[in-house]
Design goal:
binds flavin-adenine dinucleotide, binds uridine-5'-diphosphate, 7-stranded mixed β-sheet, Rossmann fold
Length: about 375
């Protein structure tokens, strides 16, 4: 008998999982509440300027995972892209992540790498096992660089003091004693030439997959399916019955300009003088294209309400305890697997999302072939 398999969400998690199951001979239905595939990675051409816009915020693909890198090459032509982020602090433009140029410019010096390393080390706090973002920053770059580049940005981004946030958030960023200003340290980095939505549509393009957009899946219908893969919010599946897991959402204020407005893709604004965190100029995410006009986003983070799009899981102590309760409920849901950024309530990059979907599909197929419940 053919199994009835449901994939809730047509983002990267949903597309990769569905593809793997379809290639193994299953038929699977994919639904998404939105009018497009690709979830938060969605890209679309701006009708006024023709620029490819990263609709839910800038997305750069970066990974050390060769299998994931090979996987995405099957569905899109990637153009090489180096993420070089700038930041404006007190009327000056600096280079990120904090590197030798940033340090020399900030302190008005011309230090060589080892001098700068010793100079920064003399200013950092001796905190053996930093637990919070603030402790991590003080141990990593010291108070001056922390105050200039991280404190204000993080307060705006997360709506709380960095003293309340986990150290792991800052550990995403490198500190370099060279002039290398590549924001990421992964071996592979790029952006699909025709955008992420075309790539996800290609992943979903398989005779075993049927996609239904603008379709909200109601969790009470889970029992109608042999198995449901859920990439929606974990607490949403349980109708928020224990309370809501906290998220930050983003408001994007769009504006357009002629020519090149800021000269780079992403300019951060950590200062308290402006309420936004960064400005993205989308045409710079596709430097292989040429556009006379420009479209930009100012990005304003705020607390996520019930009708907003959840972007960043907050994961403070109170959320962690609620999360544990929801994870316990999830384990009891017999024919449901929770996947992805929202389904597992984690800050997942695209490459990890794809790797986890590949691994989950393999585990599901292995369990089906041996008759054990997944
Ligand atoms: P999503 O993309 O959120 O997809 C889930 C889908 O499920 C959504 O389309 C939603 O509509 C649908 N859905 C939910 N509930 C239901 C329901 N009940 N019925 C029907 N449909 C439903 N990663 C990188 O690697 N590099 C970056 O530069 C990067 N930048 C980012 C910038 C921002 C601002 C954010 C927020 C994230 C960024 N990421 C980046 C992470 C990236 O967006 C995620 O890794 C990826 O989108 C996760 O895919 P997903 O399928 O798990 O979730
Ligand atoms: N961050 C900061 N200043 C910056 C950029 C980042 O303080 O100029 C902090 C902020 O708390 C952010 C974290 O570092 O949430 C991780 O940064 P990243 O650029 O990885 O954030 P994302 O791309 O996920 O928004």
């Amino acid at each position: 008998m053919t199994e009835r398999l449901m994939m809730v969400g047509a983002g990267l998690s949903g597309a990769v999982l569905a593809r793997q199951l379809a290639e193994a001979g299953h038929a699977i239905t994919v639904v998404d509440a939105r009018s497009h595939v690709a979830g938060n990675c969605h890209t679309a051409r701006d009708p006024q300027t023709g620029v490819m816009v990263h609709v839910y915020g800038p997305h750069i693909f970066h990974t050390d995972d060769d299998r994931v890198w090979d996987y995405v090459q099957r569905f899109a032509r990637f153009r090489s892209y180096k993420n070089q982020v700038k930041t404006t602090v007190a009327g000056q433009v600096y280079s990120l992540p904090v590197n030798l140029h940033t340090i020399n410019q900030f302190f008005g010096r011309a230090m060589r790498p080892e001098e700068a390393r010793a100079f920064v080390a003399a200013r950092t706090a001796d905190i053996p096992d930093p637990q919070t973002f603030e402790e991590q920053a003080l141990a990593f770059v010291g108070p001056d660089l922390y105050a200039a580049f991280f404190k204000g940005y993080t307060e705006k981004q997360w709506g709380t003091s960095p003293a309340n946030l986990p150290a792991s958030i800052l550990k995403r960023l490198p500190l370099r004693f060279t002039y290398d200003d590549n924001y990421f340290f992964h071996r592979h980095q790029g952006i699909p030439e025709n955008g992420y939505t075309a790539m996800v549509a290609a992943i979903l393009d398989h005779p075993g997959i049927s996609v239904r957009l603008e379709t909200v899946f109601d969790p009470s219908e889970a029992a109608d399916w042999n198995h449901v893969f859920w990439s929606g919010p974990l607490d949403g599946f349980f109708n928020y019955r224990l309370g809501r897991l906290g998220y930050r959402t983003l408001d994007f204020e769009t504006f357009r300009a002629t020519g090149d407005w800021q000269g780079c893709a992403v300019m951060n604004h950590p200062g308290a003088d402006v309420p936004f965190t960064r400005i993205s100029e989308h045409k710079h995410f596709a430097p292989w294209e040429s556009h006379a006009e420009s479209v930009l986003y100012r990005e304003y983070p705020r607390a996520c309400g019930p009708d907003d799009i959840p972007y960043y899981p907050i994961r403070l102590a109170q959320e962690k305890s609620l999360l544990a309760d929801y994870v316990a409920l999830a384990k009891e849901a017999p024919n449901v697997t929770f996947v992805g950024r929202l389904g597992t309530y984690r800050y997942l990059d695209m490459d990890v999302t794809i790797r986890e979907a590949l691994d989950l599909a393999a585990a599901f197929l292995a369990a089906r072939s041996t008759g054990t419940p997944a």
